[in-house]
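Field guide to reading this record: the first block holds the primary sequence, the second block holds the structure written as discrete tokens, and the final block holds curator observations. Each block starts with its own label. This record concerns Aminoglycoside phosphotransferase, catalogued under organism Uabimicrobium amorphum.

BLOCK 1 — SEQUENCE
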Amino acid sequence: MLSSVVESLKNPGVYLHDVDRVEMLETHCSVVFIAGEFVYKIKKPVNFGFLDYSTLEKRKKYCHLEIQLNRRLAPDVYLQVVAIYEDKGEINFSRGEVIDYAVQMRYLPEEWMMDYMLKHHTLTVEHMQKLGAWLAKFYQSAARGDEIAPFGEWGVVAGNCRENFTQMREFITHTITPQLYEALLYKTEQSLEKNKRIINKRAQENITCDTHGDLRLDHIYVEPQTQRLLIIDCIEFNDRFRYGDPVSDLAFLLIGLHLERENDLAKALVQSYFRNVCDTTGQLVLSLYCSYRATVRGKVSSMKWAEPETEDKAAAKKHAQECFLLAYRELASRDENVAIVLVAGLPGTGKSKISQYLQNEHNFTHISSDKVRKGMARDQNAESGGNGFMQGIYTPQWTEKTYSKCFELAEESILKGQRVVIDANFKLQKQRKLFYDLAEKWHIPLVICHCTSEEENIRKRLEERRDISDADWEVYQKAKKQWQNFSEEENKLVHRVHNENFTETTQRIKEILHANFLCERQWKNSNETAEDDVCIVF
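BLOCK 2 — STRUCTURE
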């Protein structure tokens, strides 16, 4: 029956108003027909457990509920429920036996959609400020009561979080590494326990309400003439997905902005929301709910990756990995925050000692280009060719292979939820760009520590060194001539480290890490609070 309805509604002549052409969109649970100035949405006769449209009466019920709930945020968009009839084998909207129902909506142009505006660079901080204030007003007036309040209690919140990890197990080694799965699970349980009292207190204070449930940029529209906001497509099929803490609903939208690298817009939205709502504890649970929402999105993308009909499996996998990594970062402390640190500089400037310090004291995975190069040479039975500059395993081809391997090892570590320090000279811009691109790919911070030292000390170190490097004074001098200075854009990431006194150097490294939200501060002024050490992903 569904196929005959779909085929009929694709015909412009079936509608009771003028239609030139019909555009059809399909999801797992519905089919949408854009017919001129109106949109018709029918529900598929499916039962997924959490969603049940399997009978005509259920589809009628949920069509009416969809209109009722969505009129809260888009009052003049959701028009009516219309019956679909069959008369002597003909599908129509006016006569015969009722065989299905559709939600009739006013058509909203794609150009009004916030997702479209974001891609075309017209979505602004002012839009986010207005949206934050509007959502604050919506949540304050949303339905509350004894039936809704329990959905905000700690037991329900914890159950929702834990359900994710149960459903994610089948994707371990596919879209999430075992290490990141365990790390994210640990941080989630830790955050749940830490916030248990606050979560229950919020439920007791009747903060839990009937929210939207699917707050995404592609569901939010801006009318150009009036700048009026409209939000469509709330969840009507399952109260459990809609009842909850409004901060959890807000987190859904924030995660979408984070994934689009729109941190300034996310920050504006959060600040506007909390400025317009009487909520003294909401910000304390924001990271937990953001992590939960990112985990859900990662799980959904993993399910999409596993579906046989998914054409771009690589894109689904990448999105899932990105979501899981973001979920972990939302809960990570500064000492755990995933990041890339490039320790760059000419031979003999103390790069390896600084990198070892970062490994031992700040939990970084140390990737040494010297060790990687020698390991590759050993695996391939290659001769080092002595320590001659650009000879043996130091030719440009070997160097390029070495940096590529460092990149590969760094990405493996990142996807385990680990922070990495790359110990190499990085004398060429293309070598540095490899890791700029890696940081951009996974949306993680990158810091460059450019090591320098007095040449007399460099020469002394090179003459006395007993480590894995083959570099000597002659190599230093030749490398110095090849050094490509940092560009103006690169200099935004560069921190100079003049490495003469190692005690002073480690203090400088701590300052650099703290300034980039990569370590807790070891000292405090009297007017500072613990909030200064919270790591928020903006």
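BLOCK 3 — OBSERVATIONS
The radius of gyration is 28 Å.
Residues 15 and 93 are 7 Å apart (CA to CA).
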